[in-house]
Amino acid sequence: MRAKISYVITAAVLVVYFVLAGSRGVLLIQSGTVLTVTFGVAVLILPVIGLWFLWKNTQFVRKANALAAELDAEGALPVDELKRTPSGRIDRDSADEVFARRRAETEDAPNDWRSWFRLAVAYHDARDTPRARKAMQRAIALHDGKTVEA
Protein backbone atom coordinates (compact mmCIF):
# COMPACT_ATOMS: atom_id res chain seq x y z
CA MET A 1 0.00 0.00 0.00
CA ARG A 2 2.87 2.35 0.81
CA ALA A 3 4.26 1.83 -2.71
CA LYS A 4 0.93 2.83 -4.27
CA ILE A 5 0.76 5.99 -2.20
CA SER A 6 4.35 6.87 -3.11
CA TYR A 7 3.62 6.25 -6.78
CA VAL A 8 0.50 8.43 -6.75
CA ILE A 9 2.31 11.26 -4.95
CA THR A 10 5.27 11.08 -7.33
CA ALA A 11 2.96 11.01 -10.36
CA ALA A 12 1.00 14.00 -9.04
CA VAL A 13 4.18 16.01 -8.44
CA LEU A 14 5.38 15.16 -11.95
CA VAL A 15 2.07 16.23 -13.49
CA VAL A 16 2.25 19.57 -11.65
CA TYR A 17 5.83 20.00 -12.87
CA PHE A 18 4.81 19.16 -16.45
CA VAL A 19 1.95 21.67 -16.33
CA LEU A 20 4.25 24.40 -14.99
CA ALA A 21 6.96 23.67 -17.54
CA GLY A 22 4.38 23.46 -20.33
CA SER A 23 2.86 26.80 -19.37
CA ARG A 24 6.33 28.38 -19.51
CA GLY A 25 6.81 26.89 -22.95
CA VAL A 26 3.52 28.37 -24.12
CA LEU A 27 4.51 31.79 -22.74
CA LEU A 28 7.81 31.61 -24.60
CA ILE A 29 6.03 30.70 -27.83
CA GLN A 30 3.56 33.57 -27.36
CA SER A 31 6.46 36.03 -27.20
CA GLY A 32 6.81 35.49 -30.93
CA THR A 33 10.53 35.91 -31.56
CA VAL A 34 12.47 33.17 -33.30
CA LEU A 35 14.59 32.54 -30.22
CA THR A 36 11.71 32.37 -27.73
CA VAL A 37 9.57 30.21 -30.02
CA THR A 38 12.49 27.80 -30.42
CA PHE A 39 13.02 27.65 -26.66
CA GLY A 40 9.27 27.37 -26.09
CA VAL A 41 9.01 24.35 -28.38
CA ALA A 42 12.04 22.78 -26.67
CA VAL A 43 10.47 23.38 -23.26
CA LEU A 44 7.19 21.81 -24.42
CA ILE A 45 8.91 18.66 -25.67
CA LEU A 46 10.11 17.64 -22.19
CA PRO A 47 6.64 17.59 -20.56
CA VAL A 48 5.23 15.67 -23.54
CA ILE A 49 7.94 13.02 -23.24
CA GLY A 50 7.49 12.96 -19.45
CA LEU A 51 3.72 12.52 -19.69
CA TRP A 52 4.14 9.75 -22.26
CA PHE A 53 6.66 7.98 -20.01
CA LEU A 54 4.42 8.37 -16.96
CA TRP A 55 1.43 7.02 -18.91
CA LYS A 56 3.36 3.98 -20.22
CA ASN A 57 4.76 3.24 -16.76
CA THR A 58 1.33 3.53 -15.14
CA GLN A 59 -0.13 1.14 -17.72
CA PHE A 60 2.69 -1.32 -17.07
CA VAL A 61 2.09 -1.21 -13.31
CA ARG A 62 -1.67 -1.64 -13.73
CA LYS A 63 -1.23 -4.66 -16.00
CA ALA A 64 1.38 -6.24 -13.72
CA ASN A 65 -0.93 -5.75 -10.73
CA ALA A 66 -3.80 -7.33 -12.68
CA LEU A 67 -1.63 -10.38 -13.38
CA ALA A 68 -0.69 -10.57 -9.71
CA ALA A 69 -4.37 -10.43 -8.72
CA GLU A 70 -5.20 -13.17 -11.22
CA LEU A 71 -2.40 -15.38 -9.91
CA ASP A 72 -3.49 -14.68 -6.35
CA ALA A 73 -7.05 -15.73 -7.20
CA GLU A 74 -5.66 -18.96 -8.67
CA GLY A 75 -3.53 -19.52 -5.57
CA ALA A 76 -0.43 -19.50 -7.77
CA LEU A 77 1.22 -16.28 -6.60
CA PRO A 78 4.90 -16.94 -5.82
CA VAL A 79 5.52 -17.41 -2.13
CA ASP A 80 8.35 -15.49 -0.49
CA GLU A 81 10.64 -18.38 0.38
CA LEU A 82 13.85 -16.37 0.48
CA LYS A 83 16.19 -16.44 3.41
CA ARG A 84 17.14 -13.06 4.79
CA THR A 85 20.10 -11.65 6.66
CA PRO A 86 19.54 -10.25 10.17
CA SER A 87 19.27 -6.79 8.59
CA GLY A 88 16.43 -7.99 6.37
CA ARG A 89 18.31 -8.14 3.07
CA ILE A 90 17.73 -11.12 0.81
CA ASP A 91 20.42 -13.79 1.10
CA ARG A 92 22.19 -14.00 -2.25
CA ASP A 93 22.50 -17.81 -2.28
CA SER A 94 18.82 -18.14 -1.48
CA ALA A 95 17.90 -15.74 -4.30
CA ASP A 96 20.13 -17.65 -6.73
CA GLU A 97 18.50 -20.95 -5.77
CA VAL A 98 14.96 -19.62 -6.28
CA PHE A 99 16.03 -17.90 -9.50
CA ALA A 100 17.45 -21.15 -10.91
CA ARG A 101 14.12 -22.90 -10.24
CA ARG A 102 12.12 -20.08 -11.80
CA ARG A 103 14.37 -19.98 -14.88
CA ALA A 104 14.03 -23.75 -15.34
CA GLU A 105 10.25 -23.46 -14.95
CA THR A 106 10.18 -20.75 -17.63
CA GLU A 107 12.39 -22.78 -19.97
CA ASP A 108 9.99 -25.72 -19.58
CA ALA A 109 6.94 -23.55 -20.33
CA PRO A 110 8.14 -20.60 -22.45
CA ASN A 111 4.62 -19.61 -23.52
CA ASP A 112 3.11 -19.58 -20.02
CA TRP A 113 2.67 -16.06 -18.72
CA ARG A 114 2.55 -17.38 -15.15
CA SER A 115 6.10 -18.73 -15.34
CA TRP A 116 7.32 -15.43 -16.81
CA PHE A 117 5.58 -13.54 -13.99
CA ARG A 118 7.32 -15.70 -11.39
CA LEU A 119 10.65 -15.25 -13.22
CA ALA A 120 10.13 -11.48 -13.12
CA VAL A 121 9.65 -11.68 -9.36
CA ALA A 122 12.85 -13.74 -9.07
CA TYR A 123 14.76 -11.17 -11.13
CA HIS A 124 13.37 -8.42 -8.89
CA ASP A 125 14.43 -10.29 -5.77
CA ALA A 126 17.90 -10.63 -7.28
CA ARG A 127 17.92 -6.84 -7.78
CA ASP A 128 18.05 -7.12 -11.58
CA THR A 129 15.39 -4.55 -12.37
CA PRO A 130 15.91 -4.31 -16.15
CA ARG A 131 15.50 -8.07 -16.61
CA ALA A 132 12.60 -8.14 -14.15
CA ARG A 133 10.83 -5.51 -16.25
CA LYS A 134 11.52 -7.39 -19.51
CA ALA A 135 10.23 -10.65 -18.02
CA MET A 136 7.09 -8.89 -16.73
CA GLN A 137 6.54 -7.28 -20.14
CA ARG A 138 6.75 -10.74 -21.68
CA ALA A 139 4.27 -12.10 -19.11
CA ILE A 140 1.86 -9.27 -19.94
CA ALA A 141 2.22 -9.85 -23.69
CA LEU A 142 1.64 -13.59 -23.32
CA HIS A 143 -1.36 -12.99 -21.08
CA ASP A 144 -2.81 -10.60 -23.64
CA GLY A 145 -2.37 -13.25 -26.34
CA LYS A 146 0.35 -11.44 -28.23
CA THR A 147 3.02 -13.47 -29.93
CA VAL A 148 6.42 -12.96 -28.38
CA GLU A 149 9.69 -13.79 -30.07
CA ALA A 150 12.65 -15.03 -28.08
Describe this structure as you would to a colleague.
The chain is mostly helical and 150 residues long. The protein contains 5 helices and no strands. Helix 1 runs antiparallel to helix 2. The longest helix has 41 residues. It is elongated. The two termini are 34 Å apart. The mean pLDDT is 90.
Mean of the pLDDT scores?
90
Computed structural class: mainly alpha
Distance between the termini: 34 Å
Largest sheet descriptor = none
- Coarse shape: elongated
Number of strands: 0
Rounded radius of gyration (Å): 21 Å
- Tell me the strand percentage band: under 5%
Residues in helices, as a percent range: over 70%
What is the string of SSEs from the N terminus onward? HHHHH
Work out the oligomeric state of the chains in this entry.
single chain
Uncertain spans, ≥5 residues at pLDDT below 50?
Answer: none
Count up the helices. 5
Can you lay out the helices and strands and say which pair or pack?
Blueprint: H1 2-31, H2 34-74, H3 92-108, H4 113-125, H5 129-143
Quick overview of this protein structure:
By secondary structure, the protein is mainly α.
Main features:
single chain; 150 residues; mainly alpha; 5 helices; elongated
